[in-house]
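Figure S7 source data.
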Amino acid sequence: MFQKMKTQDPDLWGSDAGEFNPERFANGILGTCRIPQAYVPFGVGARVCVDQQLAMTELKVILSLILIKFHFSLASSFQHSPTYRLVIEPGEGVILNIRRI
Ligand code: HEM
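Tokens for the predicted protoporphyrin IX containing FE complex:
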């Protein structure tokens, strides 16, 4: 019940909560979920994703491949704005220049 409530609750995610719609994240979590803390990507409780560890390992492999092929640097328009939320994070995001190596 808790799992269903978090991942498919129309009060949190809108009337299309039950549909597969990656575009809902086009404006980030704040742009789609009424309570950002309710976004629990792998779920919780009895129906938690059984292969969260594999998925996270795959994501690290993908990130490693990206880091091998591209060089990242801060854009001149980046403003340092540490913000206290659940953790300290960049308040206005991080604007990066990306160059293929
Ligand atoms: C980024 C990758 C992934 C995300 C975000 C994700 C997310 C989730 C979520 C939210 C659920 C719970 C759905 C619900 O009942 O409300 C779930 C369930 C499940 N996931 Fe994943 N998953 C990912 C990758 C994987 C992979 C790689 C596998 C297997 C190779 C996998 C296997 C499963 C299975 C079998 C369940 C059903 C668990 C159950 O009902 O007891 N997932 N996943």
